[in-house]
Specification:
This protein is mainly beta. The protein folds into 2 domains: 2-117, Immunoglobulins (Immunoglobulin-like, Sandwich), CATH 2.60.40; 120-401, 6 Propeller (Neuraminidase). The protein is built from no helices and 34 strands. The chain has strands at residues 2-4, 27-29, 36-38, 41-43, 46-51, 63-69, 76-78, 82-87, 91-101, 110-117, 120-128, 136-143, 146-152, 160-165, 172-176, 186-190, 201-202, 210-217, 223-229, 234-240, 249-255, 265-266, 272-280, 282-289, 296-297, 305-311, 314-319, 326-331, 338-341, 346-352, 358-364, 371-376, 384-385, 395-401. The chain is elongated and about 95 Å long.
C-alpha cells in the first residue's frame, strides 16, 4: 500500500517541514519483504537458512528489523537479514517474514514453504556375526542416511537367524539352535521394545530331531515356518499360534531332500501361502490355500526359484534362470514375469519395505561375506548399501518393519 507524504507549511507560513531520513517531495511506499529458504526440502532434522537480504525499503529509507515466523515455535526478530532454524519433525511448514523500516512501516508477509520428510523409514531386524562370530539378531532404524541406533537383541553361543516381524511391527519371531533347543532349530518371540527386561519366549515345543526355521507371521495371527522332522523323514510347512500351547499343525508335508531355501510367504489377505519345495528336483515356488490345500506350481521352470516375498498381487523371488541368482517378480496368478535386478553376485534373504517401494536383500560375490543393500522395487536407481563388512562382520536375513511407535 502506498502512503502519500507531502511537505507542509508554506501555505500556513510555517516553512517546509522535513521528514528526516526519507526523500523530500516523494511518494513513500511500505517496505517489501523477500524471503528465501535454503534448503526448502529435506529430511528431519532439517537445518534451514531463512534469508531476507533481498528485502527493500523506499528510497532513502532503510530496514531496521526482520520479524521471523519459522512456522513452528516462537516468533522472533533480528537486526540482521538472515537466521537459521532447525525443523526437528516431519511436516510441511510455512516460514514467514515481515520487515520494518525506520519510519516503523511494516511490510506485507513474505512466505516460503518448507517440506521436512521423515528421516526414519522404518526398522530392520537382521543377523550379524560382528561381535562374537556366531549369528546374533540386531535391530536398527533405517534412515535416508543409512542405519542408525543399532542394538543387539540376542547374545548366545549358537545361531539366532531368520527374523520376521509381526503384522504391525510390534514383535519379532526368529529361529535359533540353542542348547535349550536340544541342538535343533526352534522358534522364539520377543517384543524388541520391552523395557522391563527381555521377554523372549520359545513358542515351539521340545521335539527331538525336529527343526522349526525360517518363520513368517501372517495376518491371521499365526506363525508359519519351514520344518524338518527326522522322526518321520518329512519336511514342509507348519504353523503355530504364538499365544497358544505350542501345538504344531503341519499343513504341507513331503519327504525331505535338502533344507528348504526361503521362508514361506503369506498373501496380504491371509488366504494363500507361497512356499519353496524341491519335490521337482530343482527348487520351485508353489502357492496353496492357507490351510495347505490346492497347491500349484507358480514358477514352473527348470532353474532354481526360491525366497518368495509377497506384496500386493505380486511376489518377488530369487532365481538363477539366467545363470546367476538374481531378483525377479511375478504376479500371483503366474503372469507378468520380470527381472528386477541383474549383476554378477548372489542375492539372498529378500525383504520389502512396508510401503512396497524398496527391496532389501543380502548380496555378495560368493556369500562368504554378505552385506545388506536396498534398491527401488522396480529395479531402477542405484543400490544403497547399509552394512559394510570389516568390523561390522557379515550381515544377512534383513526384514523391514515400520518405524517404532512413539509413546
Amino acid at each position: 500500500m502506498k502512503r502519500r507524504t507531502f511537505l507542509k507549511g508554506s501555505a500556513l507560513g510555517l516553512g517546509a517541514l522535513i521528514i528526516p531520513g526519507c526523500a523530500d517531495f516523494v511518494e513513500l511506499e511500505e517496505p517489501i519483504a523477500r524471503l528465501t529458504a535454503t534448503p526448502s526440502k529435506g529430511v528431519a532434522p532439517l537445518e534451514v537458512i531463512l534469508d531476507g537480504k533481498n528485502s527493500s525499503a523506499s528510497e532513502d529509507c532503510f530496514i531496521t528489523k526482520y520479524e521471523w515466523n519459522p512456522g513452528y515455535g516462537n516468533k522472533y526478530s533480528t537486526l540482521g537479514s538472515q537466521t537459521t532454524c532447525t525443523y526437528p519433525y516431519p511436516g510441511e511448514y510455512k516460514a514467514k517474514l515481515v520487515v520494518v523500516d525506520n519510519k516503523n512501516r511494516r511490510s506485507s508477509e513474505a512466505s516460503e514453504t518448507i517440506i521436512v520428510d521423515e528421516n526414519v523409514l522404518g526398522r530392520i531386524a537382521f543377523c550379524s556375526n560382528r561381535d562374537q562370530g556366531t549369528g546374533e539378531l540386531y535391530l536398527a532404524e533405517i534412515t535416508k542416511n543409512g542405519l542408525d541406533n543399532i542394538q543387539k537383541l540376542t547374545d548366545n553361543i549358537n545361531n539366532d537367524i531368520s527374523p520376521a516381524w509381526s503384522p504391525g511391527g510390534k514383535d519379532l519371531v526368529w529361529s535359533a539352535n540353542r542348547p535349550t533347543s536340544d541342538g535343533w532349530f526352534a522358534l522364539y518371540v520377543v517384543d524388541p521394545d520391552e523395557t522391563e527386561g527381555n521377554d523372549e519366549r520359545r513358542i515351539t515345543p521340545f521335539i527331538d530331531n525336529f527343526s522349526a526355521y525360517k518363520p513368517t507371521w501372517c495376518v491371521d495371527g499365526k506363525i508359519y515356518f519351514n520344518f524338518r522332522d527326522r522322526n518321520s523323514g518329512t519336511q514342509g510347512i507348519a504353523r503355530v499360534d504364538p499365544n497358544g500351547n505350542g501345538d504344531i499343525e503341519k499343513i504341507i508335508e513331503e519327504q525331505f531332500h535338502n533344507w528348504l531355501s526361503g521362508r514361506p510367504a503369506c498373501s496380504p489377505d491371509g488366504s494363500k501361502i507361497a512356499f519353496v519345495t524341491d519335490r521337482d528336483v530343482n527348487t520351485e515356488i508353489y502357492i496353496a490355500n492357507i490351510d495347505g490345500t490346492e497347491e500349484w506350481n507358480l514358477t514352473n521352470h527348470p532353474a532354481n526359484d526360491r525366497v518368495p516375498i509377497w506384496y500386493g498381487d505380486e511376489l518377488f523371488f530369487i532365481s538363477d534362470r539366467d545363470g546367476t541368482p538374481d531378483i525377479w517378480a511375478i504376479n500371483s496368478n503366474g503372469g507378468g514375469l520380470r527381472k528386477i535386478l541383474e549383476n554378477s553376485g548372489i542375492e539372498t534373504d529378500l525383504g520389502i519395505s512396508p510401503n512396497g517401494s524398496k527391496i532389501i536383500f543380502a548380496h555378495d560375490i560368493d556369500m562368504s561375506n554378505p552385506q545388506i543393500y536396498t534398491i527401488n522395487a522396480d529395479g531402477t536407481g542405484e543400490w544403497t548399501q547399509l552394512t559394510f563388512g570389516g568390523a561390522e562382520g557379515a550381515n544377512c536375513y534383513p526384514v523391514w518393519g515400520p518405524p517404532k511407535v512413539k509413546n
